[in-house]
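Note to self: user wants both folds in one dump. Writing first protein now.
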Amino acid sequence: MSDEINQVHLSGKQIRVLAHPLRVRLLGRLRAEGPATATRLAEMLNTNTGATSYHLRQLADAGLVVEEERPGGGRQRWWRAAHEMSSWRRSYYVDDPDATAAASWLEIFQVNRFVELAEEWQHGLSREPAEWRDAGELSDYLLTMTAGQVHDLMEEIEEVVVRHERASQADPQPGARRVSLYLAALPRMPEESR
């Protein structure tokens, strides 16, 4: 088993396609829940099948989802995510203002999604068993680092996350649940620019 996560470094076209509320949710569901039909995804996301099918085709044209052959599937088309993770850096899109805008949109979407998940967790906390109440954690640190050190730190953290994800897939434990882990390394703005 490889310790490498199957990821795509988003091209300009891919990030422009992904920067859409329904498309990013579709891709997220396929990654979290596995292959599904447009009908099933429409039910999960409370939308209509026509819109879901259209946006799945857009994601497929960009290479972010693929159609999966299912024996006896009949006319139903099954879709799956083509990669486990998407990544990008602003520097990928220096000469593409639309892709830069899409990257900004996706980053803001991620921050808003984190806030939704954190609020959801806080509202349901009293119903959780003690072991799960203590497992959820939010931390923040203020470090003084160079850009290269930040890059190295994030790579090292990603290696640890991938190692734990692979171990949990290889040996699923009773009572295991999906956990959303968000990482952010946000350089503070210099005093004079605030």
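First done. Writing the second protein, which came from a different request thread.
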Amino acid sequence: MRTRERGGMGARVAVEPRRFYDGGTLPHDGRPGEPPNPGADPRIVLERHAEEGVETFALERRLAYLDRHVGELLVPADPGFRTDLTSVPALFTWLVPKTGAHLPAALLHDALVAGRGDATSYVSTEGREVDRVMADRIFRDAMADTGTGVVRRWIVWTAVTVATVFVGRRVLWSPAKHWSYRVAAAVTVAVIFYLGYSSTSDLFDRSWVGAVEVPWMADRPFWVELAGGFSGAVVLPLALSLLWGRLRMAGAIAGVLLAVLLHVTVGLAVIAAAYLAAERVARRSAVAGWALAAAVVGGSLVTFALVSLG
């Protein structure tokens, strides 16, 4: 089955689900493994491991993917390969879940890229070497083949591209080019955080330390300032993305997401930090946990009464 998907942010992708298929098994305990079977659906069989509190998974069967440019790829290449499924920080799993339609592509990408202390784990039957930038592109195409939505796959591709810029190894960029991308990304983040800080100060009519007045908000009615702030969160990152050169699409998407979701992310981070602190207190002492809960409930009752009754 083949369907044509048009216009995904400048791309036209032929969605071909059959590019993923069963990759067979690796040799085990002296027994030969099973060969890939292009006529069979992919089978994702995972074995859970928990080492030092970190949850990872091993693939009991291999995945096979027929890439449009490098040919057949089989993952993993060895039984020691481990994956954390889709590598998404906990704060953003509401946007990109750990599993879903994109899971086969995420497992493929994990095997194609080397982690900080891990080697790659793939076999190219055509003898092709896959660098990290190519792996990111394969990931994006593979997500299309699994039926992942166009917006989500470009967001995920942006995330892995930013990771490649900052921590990626095995890239074909020159050191100067690699550092130019890092500087562009760092400048983008710094400018967005500072303007977000200043815009928030402007929105609530406060003069926070170091904040400047932003002209797209200024002294206007609250809803007008809010609309101006949102427009700035779109327009300014698009301008900053020009610093990223050939990676300007990733720069534009990352910048707009960071600017638009800045306050949401800060709020979620505060909630997550409070939850972790409560867990730590409760784990160390049940009495302290109950005391903390009582303090929160008591404080809430007093505040509710004062606010409601004036």
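Dump finished. Worth passing along: Residues 3-167 form one domain.
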